[in-house]
Structures are given as C-alpha cells and as structure tokens.
Amino acid sequence: MGISHLKKFTNWEYWPSYMFYVPLLPYAFYLAIKARSFGFFSAVNPSIEGSGNGLESKYKTLQLLPQKYCPKTIYVTKGENFEEIAPKLTSNNIQFPLIIKPDIGFRGLLVTKVKDENELSIYIKKYNSINLIIQEFIEYKNECGILYYRIPAAKTGTITSVTLKKYLTVIGNGNSTILSLILNDERAKHYFKLITELNKDRLKTIPKNNEEVILNIIGNHSKGTQFINGNNLISSQLTNFMNELNADIKGWFYGRIDIKYHNFDELLLGKNIKIIEINGVISEPTHIYDSSKGSYLQALVSIKNHWKIIYLIGIKNNEINKVSFTNLNYLISLYFNYKKYLKKVKALNSNAKNYF
C-alpha cells in the first residue's frame, strides 16, 4: 500500500460518507420512535420540498433567497438543446465562463465550469435527460458554508458550523510542470484522475516560482476542496446577518448556505456576497471534515447533535405551526426515487461513483 493510499485509509477525512451515518442509525430510530414518526424531519423546512432531503429542486430553493444574494440563474428543462438555451443566457446577461449543474444533485456531482459555447453544448447534449441549472460564475475568491438553525417561535437562531473552503491548489517552483506538482502534492494525488481531467490542457505548463495554481474551483470536498474549521468566526455580528437572512426566508428553520465572498468583513455586512446554494435537513456541519481540529468520534457526536436539533424543530413545527409529518409510504417512495435518479446519473457519468 503506497503512502497516499495509507493516508487515505488512516485519515477519516477521506472515509466514505456511510462511515459517518451508519453508526448513528440506532439514534435515528430512537428519535423516530420518540416522535412517533419516521418522517419527523419533513416538518423542519416547510418552504423547501421534502424539507431539503436532497431531492429538492436547487432552482426552486434559490428562489427563496433575497434577489440581491442570488446569482443569475436559469432553469434548463430536460430535452432542451443549446439553441433553445442560448437566448436565455443573453436575456439574463450570463456570460462565459459559467457554472452548470444538475437541478437535483449531491456532493458536487456534475458541477462544471464551462468556458465557451462549445463546452456548454457538449455538456447539455450529454446530460439533457435530466433537469439542469446554469448560473453566472461568481468571481469572488473565497467560499464558506454556514450552518444555522432557529427553533420555531424563537426570535433568533444559532450558528453551529462555519466551514472555510480552500480550493485544491499547487504552488509553482519555476521548474516543474503542473502535472509534476500534482504528483508531488499529497492532497492533489488523492484526486489525481479528477483534476488531471479538469486541467488536461495545461498539465505541461510550468508555473512561475510561488505562483498559485488553482486546480478546481468547485467548493466540494469530493472534488478536492479542503474544509477548514472556521467556528472561531462565529460571532454576534455573523449571527445577526443569519437572523436577518432567515427572516427573509419564510419556512426555513434549519440548513446550510454556501456563500462566495470577497472578504469576511464584507460578508458580515452582507456586502459583495452571493449565496450559491441553500440546503435543508441534509445539511452537514462540514467543519467536522477538518481532521486537524477534531477526531472521528467528535465528528459523529456533532452529527448526532444536529439530528437532535432537526428532531426538535420538526416536533415544534408540528405542534405550533401544524406542519404534518410524512408517512412511511412516502419515505419508502423517496428512497426508491433517490435510487432511480442515482441510477440514471450513474448511467450518464461513469465518475458518478466518486461522489456517493
């Protein structure tokens, strides 16, 4: 076993997602029995389909945001071709490069930055059997995820997680090609197949000494982005910003927003930021994947604590706001819909297995 494989085996940051959830299934069953419903989570976010269980439309969820925070976005219905989509780009003033991704997606699946009409046309032709969304590319260099919740009837909420995202990057030395830098970077090697494909046109380029080369700008852990525990940035000012945002999104009580921003001081003021995604009950406290600041056991405890919060919000919304729980038949159909969608995506993309 090579050193890279050994590190991947011993460092739980790289472990598959089921390692963080299967051990907690008994606790999930306990909460369901206590709530007298396996669908208690469905009452958490009434404004989001399924409370944000992962099969909701990203496009519809983005429409909940105040317009000033929402990137320019268009919806692409399955079956549409490039000729039908091009006028929408013009009318919405979306220019290249841009971001395209499935309307229903997980862990950065198929999220792609395309640089021109040719690349966009190829992507649409390949994935036109599923609904897509196209977004303007946000130039802000920083990205973070903020997990927030508010108990129904409470006036203010709480931030439980701030995750800073460091895109997969190598530093030039004036002599080595990008390919060589990748092969000699411990983190980059873990994502070799993905990032060499993304950077295939410049692998032989030799960056200048100390030149920073960003290999992927998709802020997802499965695509090499490093998650850094930023909980030290939780403050009354940041909480106030989230409280104000929450007040503008009726029916959203729990979830994570992913923000691109220029600098954190401006983010605190709600200036020069764009919220590229809003998530519901499927949201993770992603700071736990910073293995330098916590253990695997602490990660499990954090997820467990967040499941308890989801339970409390669901119960309160059911009692106070009369939001109903979904029944077991719905949950079973949800599972099979998930499997059906996943099967379709895997058929379209052989790399899909890397994201689940």
User: How many strand elements?
Assistant: 11
Total of helices = 12
What structural class results from the helix and strand content?
A: alpha+beta
The strand line-up of the biggest sheet is 9-6-5-10-11
* Terminal CA distance: 24 Å
- In the CATH hierarchy, the third-tier topology of the largest domain is known as D-amino Acid Aminotransferase, Chain A, domain 1
* H/E topology pattern: HHHEHEEHEEEEHHHEEHEHEHH
Largest sheet report: 5 strands, antiparallel
Q: Would you write up a description of this structure?
A:
The protein is an alpha+beta fold and 356 residues long. It has 3 domains: 216 residues, ATP-grasp fold, B domain (D-amino Acid Aminotransferase, Chain A, domain 1), CATH 3.30.470; 66 residues, Dna Ligase, domain 1 (2-Layer Sandwich), CATH 3.30.1490; 48 residues, no CATH class. It has 12 helices and 11 strands. Helix 2 packs parallel to helix 11. It is globular. The C terminus is likely disordered.
Any chance you could write out the topology, listing elements then pairs?
Layout (H helix, E strand, L loop, with lengths): L2 H8 L14 H11 L22 H5 L10 E4 L5 H10 L6 E5 L9 E3 L2 H10 L5 E5 L5 E8 L8 E9 L2 E3 L6 H6 L2 H5 L1 H7 L13 E3 L11 E4 L6 H13 L5 E8 L2 H5 L4 E6 L17 H25 L7 H21 L8
Antiparallel strand pairs: 1-4, 2-3, 2-4, 5-6, 5-10, 6-9, 7-8, 10-11
How would you describe this structure in keywords?
four-stranded antiparallel β-sheet; 11 strands; 3 domains; 356 residues; alpha+beta; 16% strand; D-amino Acid Aminotransferase, Chain A, domain 1; Dna Ligase, domain 1
